[in-house]
Structures are given as C-alpha cells and as structure tokens.
Write a structure and sequence with these properties.
The complex is a heterodimer of chains A (59) and B (563). Chain A is mainly alpha-helical and 59 residues long. Chain A is built from two helices and two strands; from the N terminus they run ββαα. Chain B has 563 residues and is an all-alpha fold. Classes of the chains: A mainly alpha (59), B mainly alpha (563).
Chain lengths: 59, 563
C-alpha cells in the first residue's frame, strides 16, 4: 500500500488521499461479517465436529 | 418521508419514527423478561441457600431453566436489538430499513420467547438453559427458541440493511461512529451465534418429535456452545458500545485512540467467539490442540481487546473530565464525575465489575490447566454473573436511564431512588458473583438442588465455609433483586406516569452533556491524551490479575501434591 496522491476528476489542486487497507476493512461491515462468521466456523465448529467424527465407533 | 422524522431536543439527532417505535417495543419486551427471569433467579438463590432451601427439586430445575432462558437470552437479545436499531437509524441519522419486516422479527421473537416460557412452566422442559441431549424437553420448548432465533436473525439483517441505506443516502461521512462500529461487532457475533443455535436446535426439535433417531451428545455440546456462550459475547460487544455511548452522552468523552478501539473490536470479531471452547475443556474425544488453541491462544487475543477497551473507556472519561476543568491531582476527574447520574454511575460500575470479576476469572477458566479445578462448579455461574449481571445488565440498565427521556420522551420518576439503584444492583451482583466463585473454589457443584446430599447413598460433606458462601450468595441475591425491582418500578413508572418531555423541559432539565449528541454520532478521537489517573487504575488491575492468576496455579499445585 502506497500513500500516492491522485488528482480529482477536474484535475484541480484538490487531491484525494488513498484510504489505508485497514480502514477499508473496518469500513466494510460485510467483509467483517464474512471474517467474523468464517473464523469461528472453521476453527471452532468444523474443527471440533471433525474431531468428534473421527472418534472410532466401539465394537 | 421527512414527517416521519423528529429532531431530538437533547441530542440534535434526527429520529426516525418507525425506528423509535421498534426501539420502544424491543426495550419494553426486554424489561418484561428481565423481571420474569430475575424473579426465577431469586427463587434459585433462595433454594441454594441451604438454611432456606425454598423449592422442591422439580420446581428448582424448572426455575433454573426459566431463569437461564429469560435473562441470558430473551432479556439480553431483545435489548440488544433495541440497541442495534438505535446505533444504526438514530446515530446515523437515517431511516430504518424495512420497518414492517422488523415488526415481523419482533413478533417472531416475542412469540418464541412466550412459547418457550409456557413449555418450561408446564413442567416437562426442565432441561436447563443448556438443554443437553439426551435430556428431552417438550417440542414447543425447542420450537420457541428456534422462532426467537429466526426473529433475532431477521432483526440483525434489518440492522445491516440500515447501514446500507445510511451509506447510500450519505447520511454520514467517513467511517461510522465508534458506538455504531461496536454495534456492527455485536451484530456479526449475533449472526454466528444464532446460526449455531438454529443448526443444533432444529434437529433437536425434530428429535423431540420422534422424527430423528438420535443426536450425538458431543456434537450437540460443541455446536450448542457456539450458541450458548457466543450469545454472551453479543452482550460483551453491545456492553462496550454502551460504555462508549454513555461516556459521550454524559461527560462528552471521545475515545483516546479511535483506531485502537476499532482494532480491539476487530479482535472481538475474529477471536471472541472461540471462547465457547472453555465449556468443553474436560470433554473426551476432542484433542488438546483444539482445546488449547481455542482457549489459551485465540481467547487471549479477545482478552487483549477487552483490556484495550478497559483502558480506553476510563481513559476517554479522564481526558473529557480534565477538558471540562476537573484537573486537580491524579483522581480529581474521577471524584468530580457525575456519580449522581444513574447512567454514568451504572456505566462506570459496569466497567469496574466486569473487568475485575468477569474478565480476570474468564481468563482463569480459559486456561486449560486451571479450568480443571473449577470446572462445572459454582465458580462458572459466579464468573458469568460477573460478566452478564454486573457487567452487561448494569450497563444496559444505565443506558435505559437515557433511553427513557430521549426515546420514550418521559421524565424519570423517583429520581432519588434512580440515583441509588445502580449502586444497589451493582452491590448485589458483585456479591452474587464473588460468593458463588468462592463456593465454587471450595468445590460446590453448579446446578445442584441439595448440597447437603440428604438422600444420597454415599455421604459427602462440603466444608462449613461453603454453606456460609451460599448463605451470603442468597443475601446478595436479595439485594440485587431489590435493585432490579427498583429499576423496573422507575422505568415502567416513568414510561406510564412520567412527565411528558418536550423542548421546554429538555432545555430546563438537560439529560445529555452539551455537544454529547454530536460526539456520540461522529467519529474521531480526543485531541490530547493525558491519563495519569487511568494509568494507575490499569496498573492496579494488572497487579490484581497477576496475583489472582498465580493464586490459582497455587490451588492447582495442591490438587496433586508432589512431595
């Protein structure tokens, strides 16, 4: 991520600062929603249920 | 469209009429379930107080089930939906997305909560809040919970829809306010939580109808705790948002670093939910890798988030108070804080009690080695009474003292009682938490009707101190109940009989710090950060944390003496 300055559409002196990647992430509730559901689903639920599923069945 | 909005004379915020009606409805439903659940809680405490031992065994487990469902789920989530609507439509100055669907969501939640309560009161669903299989409740108990969960999920979708509307209609610029960002965090946690509940409760409902042969007990516990513990994490995120909101509205505080506070919420989003694993630390069949990663590694990242908020909130208040002219010494800002304002007092007590009681003990329980000395003892409910009652409930009560004048537009009645109420309830909640944990440390089992083991084939005696702890727990439960009843009398009485609040009343009797409305609804941090008093408070907290942590390792070392 660079801090490059881009001119506005009119080409005037007013320049628009690029939004840092972290701020873009924090400003996107749906990306956060994806992360917030995916992380516990994989690390807690799926991993946990897979461990239970691999327990051998008693004869 | 414009005639659906009013401008709040206290905060200057635009309030969407349908959003306001939905906030009122959800808040009222929440308070009703707090009353019902709280009374069941008192019955439970008076039964576990061995000298009174109020209820017979069957009614004890009925009351315990109702208490858990009503306060841990229905009171909390109804109130959080009200907060989500407030943090989106009101703080972003926009209309609420699809109010009709929001009313459908409310009806589903209310219908589900009533159905689950009826099932419990009929006496065939005393399976407690966790409803572990193979214990089987009546089908309408599970159906009630499923309907409630679906309604809450729909309400959360309305919240996300409102964020989209605000962005499209450009009702705010830049990032959303920090309080709204905290509400986004709570809503994200709610989506995973409610989905987990639906995933496990739907097959369990079918099993109760005889349509499914069996439910695997271990799988049930894993997925259910994705709902059961995570629902308390919604509370944590919502509670922290409330702390920031009350700070802004009562003393005009801004976060000392908004970026750091947002990053702390991000830690919640990524890691807070994994703490559910601490309930499964002694379950067979699950590897130590899963247990240790989900608790002692990932959980600590979420704890880091809480510690950031624990410093940021009082730090923000210190900065604001110093700016307001209270600059004397290290703690002049704290001494001169508005302690007679129940909103501020409740919020600050919630910060302290949550940190010292709920926070530190949560880390103890999340450490796999230490967990074994208190697993399934009364220490566990002692911990979550520190988080949910002394923390979240007290914070939600505190913001209700602002919601009544700002949203219901009524003056508070019994103002002197309102000033005392947070201290009364906070004292009671603190005692419940401390004495339950003390009893748990002495080995007293949770969810046990008779700690004297009167009819047991094998005799067992707890130490006499354990009986005293349960007596003290009962006394403080009575104090908390008096505080809870006072809250309900003040709030319901104010809504029904309080003086109507118009512009003139708002000018004569402001409830919001000047400029507080703009502060809470905008982003940005404090200009200058000088927090020597907060630094000392945080040092005291860390010292307590370290000492308590090592005391528990000492307890553990005594379980298996090596010499």
């Amino acid at each position: 991520m660079t801090d490059s300055i881009q001119p506005d559409e009119q080409g005037g002196a007013e320049a628009e600062e690029r939004i840092p990647a972290m701020q873009s992430l924090l400003d996107n509730p749906f990306l956060l929603l994806f992360i917030g559901v995916a992380v516990p689903t994989v690390l807690y639920t799926v991993w946990g249920v897979m461990e239970v599923a691999h327990i051998p069945i008693a004869n | 469209m414009s005639n659906m909005f009013r401008t709040c004379p206290d905060t200057g915020l635009k309030v969407h009429g349908p959003a306001e009606a939905l906030i009122k409805a959800n808040a009222v439903a929440a308070v009703v379930f707090l009353l019902i659940g709280g009374l069941f809680g008192l019955l439970v405490a008076l039964t576990r107080w061995q000298a009174i031992h109020l209820l017979p065994a069957d009614l004890f487990y009925l009351a315990l089930t109702a208490h858990g469902a009503d306060v841990l789920v229905f009171w909390m989530i109804f109130f959080e939906i009200a907060l989500l609507y407030f943090a989106s439509a009101v703080l972003l100055n926009c209309r609420l997305a699809t109010p009709r669907i929001a009313w459908v969501a409310f009806a589903l939640m209310l219908g589900g909560a009533v159905m689950a309560n009826v099932a419990v009161l009929q006496g065939e669903s005393s399976v407690m809040f966790t409803s572990y299989v193979p214990m089987k409740a009546a089908p309408h108990f599970y159906l009630g919970l499923i309907l409630f969960a679906v309604g809450a999920l729909v309400a959360t979708a309305v919240f996300f829809g409102t964020l989209v509307i605000a962005k499209q209609e450009k009702t705010y610029t830049g990032s959303v306010p920090l309080v709204t960002f905290g509400a986004v965090t709570a809503a994200i946690i709610a989506v995973y939580t409610i989905a987990s509940g639906a995933i496990i409760l739907i097959p369990t409902f079918l099993w109760s109808l005889g349509l499914v042969g069996e439910i695997d007990t271990l799988t049930y516990r894993i997925v259910w705790w994705g709902f059961g513990h995570s629902s308390q994490q919604i509370n944590v995120a919502a509670m922290v948002s409330v702390w920031y909101a009350i700070g802004a509205l009562t003393v005009g505080s801004k976060p000392i670093s908004e970026k750091v506070s947002r990053a702390a919420f991000l830690l919640y989003i990524c890691f807070l939910l994994l703490a559910s694993a601490h309930h499964l630390l002694v379950d067979p069949g699950i590897s130590s890798e899963w247990k240790v990663f989900n608790t002692s590694y990932a959980l600590f990242l979420a704890v880091l988030g809480s510690m950031i908020h624990g410093m940021s909130v009082p730090g923000a208040i210190e900065v604001a108070q110093r700016k307001n002219g209270f600059t004397q010494g290290l703690f002049g800002w704290l001494r001169k804080a508005p302690w007679g304002n129940p909103a501020f007092a409740g919020m600050f007590l919630s910060v302290i009690l949550f940190g010292f009681l709920g926070g530190i003990t949560g880390v103890i329980m999340g450490t796999e080695q230490l967990n074994i000395i208190i697993h399934n003892t009364l220490y566990v409910p002692g911990h979550f009474h520190g988080t949910v009652v002394a923390g979240s409930t007290l914070a939600f009560m505190a913001i209700t003292y602002l919601i009544v004048p700002l949203i219901f537009r009524r003056e508070l009645i019994f103002k002197r009682l309102a000033q005392w109420q947070p201290y009364l309830f906070g004292l009671g909640a603190m005692g419940i938490s401390v004495f339950m944990m003390a009893a748990g440390t002495l080995g007293v089992s949770r969810r046990h009707w008779d700690m004297a083991f009167s009819d047991a084939p094998f005799a067992f005696d707890y130490p006499p101190a354990a009986f005293m702890m349960m007596g003290l727990n009962g006394i403080f439960a009575i104090i908390a109940s008096i505080g809870g009843v006072a809250f309900i009398v003040i709030v319901v009485g104010s809504i029904l009989f309080g003086k109507k609040r118009d512009e003139e009343t708002a000018r004569a009797n402001p409830v919001v710090f000047q400029g507080g409305g703009a502060t809470v609804s905008s982003h940005g941090a404090a200009d200058e950060v000088k927090i020597p008093g907060t630094t000392i408070l945080v040092a005291v907290f860390f010292l307590s944390f370290v000492l308590y942590y090592f005391v528990n390792w000492k307890y553990l070392s005594e379980v298996w003496p090596l010499s």
